[in-house]
Design a protein that fits this description.
It is built from eleven helices and nine strands. Strand 1 and strand 2 form a beta hairpin. The longest helix is centred in the first third of the chain and has 14 residues. Strands 1-2-3-5-4-6-7-8-9 form a nine-stranded mixed β-sheet, sandwiched between helices. The chain has two domains: 199 residues, Rossmann fold (3-Layer(aba) Sandwich), CATH 3.40.50.1820; 58 residues, no CATH class. With 278 residues, the chain is α/β, with parallel strands linked by helices. It is globular and about 45 Å long.
């Protein structure tokens, strides 16, 4: 099922209905083979323009889906956390694309893309950028990411949840957190997204404990995968990329020199285009 309407900026906003009845909103750009972009935590189309810019750049050769994950932006939510529901959302978009698509996931969105590929034969390729697995002692591991964030949501401690995410998960220094909180508009937007943090934790928690990923776990991701990382990112990101590429059955790696976790879409787009065209 698909619905279309124009927003106030005359942008065509489309929706698809996921398996549990949740409405998933997306923009569709370009023409050609389908690519679905999967955002990371604390992001959606109107909040972080990175994937919107990436969609425009890739849209010269591909049909690109840039969607709001459930509970964010213009997508709905049934307020029940399971990994399968986010996978169902991607599969609904694949259905809209005609039954076959390639996936790109940034940050924790990379984990969703890989998990979807493991159970979805209609995914033909996957690319990821800096999936934030913690695979060794190069940064502090998170032992109870999912349980702790779920507890904070249940107790409605949303300010504490955002602070925890920014400090412990994203690794933002305390002095920067003060400045972020002073920007009341930005802080309020983060508070609005924050209840979806446990959704990311459901995918990420097991892989942020300082242990290498298991080859057995990722053995079902048999499609070609491009694992990318920024050359200027902290050491734990390339360590994670190395470890992930080693356990995926068909993976290749590429470092984007000078890039950090806040990647430049203009640098990323040609790398993805080359991989998805091959």
């Amino acid at each position: 099922m698909n619905d279309r309407r124009f927003d106030k900026n005359r942008r065509i906003m489309q929706t698809v209905i996921s398996k549990d009845g949740t409405k998933i909103a997306f923009d569709k750009v370009g023409s050609g083979p389908a690519i679905i972009l999967v955002n990371g935590a604390m992001s959606y189309r109107a909040f972080d323009p990175t994937l919107g810019e990436l969609a425009e750049l890739l849209g010269t050769d591909f049909t690109v889906y840039n969607y709001d994950r459930r509970g964010r932006g213009e997508s709905g939510d049934i307020q029940s956390i399971t990994k399968q529901r986010e996978i169902d959302d991607v599969q609904a978009l694949i259905g809209d694309a005609g039954g076959e698509a390639m996936l790109f996931g940034i940050s924790s969105g990379g984990a969703i893309a890989l998990e979807t590929a493991a159970v979805t034969p209609s995914v033909t390729k996957v690319a990821v950028y800096e999936v934030p697995f913690i695979v060794d002692d190069s940064r502090e591991p998170l032992k109870d990411y999912e349980s702790y964030t779920t507890k904070l949501v249940a107790e409605n401690k949303i300010d504490e949840l955002v602070e925890y995410f920014l400090r412990k998960v994203a690794g933002i220094p305390a002095e920067y957190l003060v400045g972020i909180k002073q920007d009341q508009g930005m802080w309020n937007k983060m508070l609005a997204i924050a209840p979806t943090i446990p959704y990311d934790a459901a995918f990420m928690s097991e892989f942020m404990k300082g242990k290498p990923p298991s080859a057995d776990y990722w053995a079902k991701v048999t499609v070609p995968v491009l694992v990318t990382v920024g050359g200027a990112s902290p050491a734990w990101f390339p360590h994670a990329a190395d470890a992930l590429a080693k356990v995926l059955p068909d993976a290749r790696q590429q470092t984007l020199e000078g890039q950090t976790h806040q990647v430049d879409a203009k640098v990323l787009a040609p790398v993805l285009s080359h991989f998805f065209k091959k």
